[in-house]
Amino acid sequence: MTFFAENLHSDDEKEKAVSHLCNTAWRAQTDIVD
Fold first, then answer.
1. Alpha carbon of 20 to those of 1, 2, 3: distances in Å?
2. Which domain of life is it from (predicted)?
3. CA dist., res. 9 & res. 4, Å (int)
4. What is the distance in angstroms between the CA of the first residue and the CA of the last residue of the chain?
5. What 3-state DSSP class applies to 34?
6. Residue 8 above 70 pLDDT?
7. What is the pTM of this model?
8. DSSP assignment string, 1-31
9. What is the rounded distance in angstroms from the CA atom of residue 29 to the CA atom of residue 24?
10. SS3 for 33?
11. Biggest alpha carbon distance in the chain?
12. How many Cβ atoms from other residues are within 10 Å of residue 16's Cβ?
């Protein structure tokens, strides 16, 4: 159970990191377009 919970936490952190990278890239694109 603990191992499973740790895996869920790890996936959640990965999703946050990916979301942050996507948001940063999107802002960079809009800045270039503007």
1. 29, 27, 26
2. Bacteria
3. 9
4. 49
5. coil
6. no
7. 0.51
8. -HHHHHHHHHHHHHHHHHHHHHHHHHHHHHH
9. 9
10. helix
11. 49
12. 10
Q: Is 28 exposed, middle or buried (0-12, 13-18, 19+ CB in 10 A)?
A: exposed
pLDDT over threshold 60, residue 1: no
Show the tokens assigned to 4.
Answer: 């499973």
Amino acid present at 11? D
Tell me the one-letter amino acid at 1: M
Tokens representing residue 27 in the block? 């802002």
